[in-house]
């Protein structure tokens, strides 16, 4: 039995952050201003507040400007659209991220659609989505891009590999499929209506699990030696009364005895997501300044 390797997302994220920090210095020296990221948080969802805080900290740590806009859950659509328009017009702001999910009375897609695509560091606007589908340069959603970087780091060239993406969300599944296709994989997108998911997953050299269901992908579904990217972050009750723990969408313990390599939760994809957000903010700053994005980012 071959024991799978745990892919160290923290280590690759730290290397990417180091490269971003160096290019931030170069940008700041040549442009006379720091790249800037604006994050909009609506309401008081505790998980969202934690994510926004860590984005803020990392932005500052890498030498960029961080602009935070916290608004009450009662904000109306027009006020939120006005804020996005203001940020679109603010020359200090290179990237705009509206933390999702938004309260149900707001139209999240309409808010995202209002973001200037050149500042769309989440890669979620129709223009960014279209650019990705067409293979044009643009900003790509952070979690899928971070997952692709982990796969390339682990496997090198992905050409010809069978990739199965479990999940078809706008944030992860669909853009992940596009990125794998652009990397010359043969891509299958599986979802809640897929028949015999176990045998579909078993065909894969690369499995990307992004369904938001704790440990839904079982260890014995994994083809021997496959690379597994577990995008899930699910909080479940821990054995100790009243405590919780984080698990992914894959049964990691079971998959370790089949997979060649697997990302742990936490410490796998999560750190890459935020590192890529930093990368995207820097890339947006360079592109907005009419400069080429530095090599290796
Ligand atoms: N909520 C959870 N993940 C994300 C993300 O990648 N971007 C935004 N905007 N909100 C999120």
Alpha carbon gyration radius: 19 Å
In the CATH scheme, the class of the largest domain would be Alpha Beta
How many strand segments? 11
**Element string (H = helix, E = strand):** EHEHEHEHHHEHEHEEEEHEH
Poorly predicted regions: none
Helix content: 40-55%
* CATH-level-4 superfamily name of the largest domain: NAD(P)-binding Rossmann-like Domain
| Distinct bound molecules | guanine
Number of structurally distinct domains: 2
The main β sheet shows up as: 6 strands, parallel
**Average pLDDT metric:** 97
Distance between the termini: 37 Å
How much of the polypeptide forms β-strand, as a percent range? Answer: 15-25%
Write up this protein.
- The chain has 10 helices and 11 strands.
- With 297 residues, the protein is α/β, with parallel strands linked by helices.
- The protein has 2 domains: 31-117, 3-Layer(aba) Sandwich (Rossmann fold), CATH 3.40.50; 141-269, Rossmann fold (3-Layer(aba) Sandwich), CATH 3.40.50.
- The strands form 3 sheets. The protein has a 6-stranded parallel beta sheet.
- Helix 7 links the parallel strand 5 and strand 6.
- Helix 6 crosses helix 7 (173-182) and helix 6 packs across helix 10 (269-288).
- The two termini are 37 Å apart.
- The mean pLDDT is 97.
- The structure holds guanine (GUN).
- The site of guanine has 8 residues, from strand 4 and helix 6.
């Amino acid at each position: 039995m071959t024991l799978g390797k745990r892919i160290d997302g923290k280590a690759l994220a730290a290397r990417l952050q180091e490269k971003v920090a160096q290019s931030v210095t170069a940008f700041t020296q040549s442009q006379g201003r720091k790249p800037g990221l604006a994050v909009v948080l609506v309401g008081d969802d505790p998980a969202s507040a934690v994510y926004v805080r860590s984005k803020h900290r990392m932005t500052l740590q890498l030498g960029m400007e961080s602009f935070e806009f916290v608004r009450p859950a009662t904000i109306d659509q027009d006020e939120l659209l006005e804020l996005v328009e203001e940020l679109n017009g603010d020359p200090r702001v290179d990237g705009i991220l509206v933390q999702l999910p938004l309260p149900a009375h707001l139209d999240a897609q309409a808010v995202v659609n209002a973001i200037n695509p050149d500042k769309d560091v989440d890669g979620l606007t129709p223009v960014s989505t279209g650019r990705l589908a067409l293979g044009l340069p643009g900003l790509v959603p952070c979690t899928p891009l971070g997952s692709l970087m982990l796969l390339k780091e682990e496997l090198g060239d992905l050409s010809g590999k069978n990739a199965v993406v479990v999940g078809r969300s706008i944030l992860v599944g669909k853009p992940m499929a596009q990125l794998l296709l652009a990397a010359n994989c043969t891509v299958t997108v599986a979802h809640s209506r897929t028949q015999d998911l176990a045998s579909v997953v078993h065909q894969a050299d690369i499995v990307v699990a992004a369904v938001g269901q704790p440990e839904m992908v079982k260890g014995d579904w994994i083809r021997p030696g496959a690379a597994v990217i577990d995008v899930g972050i699910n909080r479940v009750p821990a054995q100790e009364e009243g405590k919780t723990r984080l698990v992914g969408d894959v049964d990691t313990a079971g998959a370790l005895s089949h997979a060649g390599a697997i990302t742990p939760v936490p410490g796998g994809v999560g750190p890459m997501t935020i590192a890529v957000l930093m990368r995207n903010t820097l890339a947006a700053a360079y592109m907005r300044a009419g400069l080429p994005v530095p090599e290796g980012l």
